[in-house]
Amino acid sequence: MTISLHEALRSSPWSGLPGPSTAEGWIARARQVAAILSVDAVERDRAGRTPTAEVRLLKDSRLTVVLGPAAHGGGGQSWTTALRVIRAVSAGDGSIGQLLGYHLLWAWAARLVGTDGQIEAVEELYTSHNLFFGGAVNPRDADLTVRDRGETLEFSGRKSFSTGARVSDLLVLEGAFAASGEHVFAIVPTDQEGIRFLGDWDNLGQRLTESGGVDIDGVEVPWASAAGFVDKTFRSLVYNTLNVPLIQQIFTSIYLGIAEGALATALAYTRDKTRPWPYGSAPQESAAEEWYILETYGDLQSRLWSAQALADSVDAELAGLLHARRETVTERARGEVAVRIAASKQVAAAAALDTAHRIFEVTGARATSNAVGLDIFWRNIRTHSLHDPVAYKRREVGEFVLSDRIPEPSWYT
Predict the structure, then answer these.
(1) pLDDT-derived band of residue 1, with 50, 70 and 90 as boundaries?
(2) pLDDT tens figures, 343-352
């Protein structure tokens, strides 16, 4: 029998156990976490409390260090595993899957743009202490202002979205020098003066992601912590621009997880509670024998299998670049994987939206009860799939197949 989040935190089911040693083991653990989260996902979503307990569950299960170096107690796994872990957790609770996905992205941030020394220091720090990341990097807002104070940098400004930041131990800041416009990333402790969370996240879905605004006021960072800078000069690589393709494929994992959770929940409801329609030309004894229910589930599952297969393929392609020697990643390779990610994301979003919408047709009128909570899946996918216009992803694929044009790196490509 699946235990609840409260029971899991009280009993610590993974206490004293070593972390999984295989990709399959990590994915299985993620499914255990998802099962725990699914028990009261609706109630927690309705309450809308800060997900402190949920982040503790992620830490206790050590999914937070699935990518961390084994030498420091991490899983030492690849991004193919990490993306499947995000997908599995999202099936149990889309909000917490998003928190985990963003954490793993920011945990990889030093590797994306940092120097070798910065990578080693950050990965040892977060892995050995099992620290949780958030980010204040929303590109649709004005950049944080960065000022050179000699030995330090000073960040100031406001970001309207800062997913996971309020429940984080470490916060990724991004800003630009006013004169040159050059961008700077830095990782800072979250609990400090100068960082104030606005507590204004009040959205239709993904309610437990703590994605509200944050004020940054005079946060100082040593120049040595400016990611990728050596003697105040940034060392640029194509690899640095993989941050956006990576987060877009993380979105794919979240969307597929939400679809998987919606379909599994609906199937269970139909088996146990949906009644057959008695007024048709050939009444059935159970809902599981109704032709329109069988046809709908067959269509939804087929679409989901297709989206999963594409995502699995693209996950492997992206991981091949993320785990390559950073100097070897070319603009062409980066562009081609960005196109494939654009295809994967838009297919996953369409499958998830369709699934979350149509499950009501095969569960019945009683399934609209607030106590059932099937609305959580539609609200979650509808909210996050608006992150950036999916139409632009379709256009990127079209430009590639028609004109062999790869996307230029941007904050959304």
Answers:
(1) low
(2) 999 999 999 9
Structural domain ending residue among the three candidates 234, 266, 290? 234
Residues 277, 214 within the same domain: no
- Cβ atoms of 174 and 184 within 8 Å: the answer is yes
Q: Are residues 192 and 313 in the same domain?
A: no
Within-domain flag for 410: no
At a CB cut-off of 8 Å and minimum separation 6, what does 112 contact? 239, 240, 242, 243, 246
d(CA 94, CA 86): 9
Closest CA to 87 of 27, 8, 37: 27
Which two structure tokens, joined as six digits, stand for 330?
A: 């070319």
Report yes or no: 317 and 340 within 8 Å, Cβ to Cβ: yes
Q: Is 150 left (phi over 0), alpha (psi -120 to 50) or beta?
A: left
Structural tokens at position 51: 């997900």
In angstroms, the Cα distances linking 188 to 68, 154, 174 are: 19, 12, 11
Q: Are 376 and 311 in contact (CB under 8 A)?
A: no
pTM check: above 0.90: yes
Q: Is 83 exposed, middle or buried (0-12, 13-18, 19+ CB in 10 A)?
A: buried
Q: How many whole angstroms separate alpha carbon 261 and alpha carbon 267?
A: 10
CA 177 to CA 199: how far, in whole Å? Answer: 28
Sequence-distant (6+) residues with CB within 8 A of 151 are 222, 223
When divided into structural domains, the chain yields a total of: 3
